[in-house]
Every structure is written in structure tokens, then in C-alpha cells.
Design goal:
The chain is of the alpha/beta class and 156 residues long. It contains 5 helices and 5 strands; from the N terminus they run βαβαβαβαβα. The protein has a 5-stranded parallel β-sheet. Helix 1 packs parallel to helix 5 and helix 3 packs across helix 5. The longest helix is centred in the C-terminal third of the chain and has 19 residues. The radius of gyration is 15 Å and the shape is globular. The two termini are 27 Å apart.
Length: 156
């Protein structure tokens, strides 16, 4: 199963980039994984939040293929403990060809993206910057991979 993470906008903090890249390299030992960075919308002053989300949503939906399982990382999504997320991932790996996660822009997702999404997952009830949530997600994906392989990275 191929897994993708779609992001709106580049990660700019060099320390966070280094950590994300480390986890991406680790994930690649377990599954095909790719991060797709979509460009930020330029000249947003004249755009409403809905218009900005709409443009970002169009870019996200262009990357999603029929048959993909689209999972939004969203504050209103289901919450999992790491062990539960690993089990969720294992079940998806056995049933889908491509698993696509998405992190929206600063205002979240458009209605069209929510309508296309198959599920939503929340990584915390707390709010994190878009830069940091990328690191948290890649670490949790790596953790899930190690849990599913029975490796000692995760401790109960």
C-alpha cells in the first residue's frame, strides 16, 4: 500500500524539516511513503477564508485519485492512542491500494474536501502549528509502523 501525506505550504523551520526528514526516512523502511507539498495560495488579501480554502481544496482534490482512501488530519476527527492508530493503519493496509492523508492550510479544509474525505483523524485536542503537526504526524506514522512490526520503539 502506498501512503501519501499532502501538505499545503512548505515547512520553513530547518529544525522541524530535519526531524520530519528523519522520520520519513524511517517510514520508508516499512512502506512506500511520499510527502506532497502544495504551494501556498499567493495574494490572499483579497480572498475570504472560504475562497482560500476553496483554492487549496481544489489542489488537494487534484492529487486524490478515485479509489484512494482520503484521511483528513482535522481537529474534529477521531482520536486514537498510538496502539489504536497502529491497528487502524494495519487494517487499512490490508484493504486499500493508496492511503492519502491531508493537512490543510491555515483555515482548514473546504466543504468539497470534507465531502470527498473518507475519514478524519485528530492528533490532539490541542492546537498545534501546521509546521509542528507535520512532525507529530510523521513520528506517529513511524511509531505505528514499529508497533505493527513488534519492534521496541513504543513502550506501553
Amino acid at each position: 500500500m502506498k501512503t501519501e501525506l499532502i501538505l499545503v505550504g512548505k515547512t520553513t523551520d530547518k529544525h522541524i524539516i530535519a526531524c520530519i526528514n528523519d522520520y520519513v526516512e524511517r517510514i520508508l523502511h516499512y512502506m512506500p511513503f511520499e510527502m506532497i507539498v502544495l504551494p501556498e495560495i499567493k495574494n490572499t488579501r483579497g480572498l475570504s477564508e472560504e475562497q482560500q480554502k476553496g483554492r487549496e481544496g481544489e489542489m488537494i482534490l487534484q492529487r486524490v485519485q478515485p479509489g484512494d482512501l482520503l484521511i483528513l488530519l482535522d481537529e474534529h476527527g477521531s482520536e486514537y492512542r498510538s496502539i489504536e492508530f497502529a491497528d487502524w493503519l494495519r487494517r487499512k493496509q490490508n484493504t486499500v491500494r493508496r492511503l492519502v492523508f491531508a493537512i490543510g492550510g491555515p483555515y482548514g479544509f473546504s466543504k468539497a474536501v470534507y465531502a470527498r474525505a473518507d475519514e478524519q483523524i485528530s492528533l490532539s485536542r490541542m492546537t498545534f502549528s501546521h509546521q509542528l503537526i507535520r512532525l507529530i504526524f510523521t513520528e506517529q506514522l513511524y511509531r505505528a509502523c514499529t508497533i505493527n512490526k513488534g519492534e521496541p520503539y513504543h513502550h506501553e
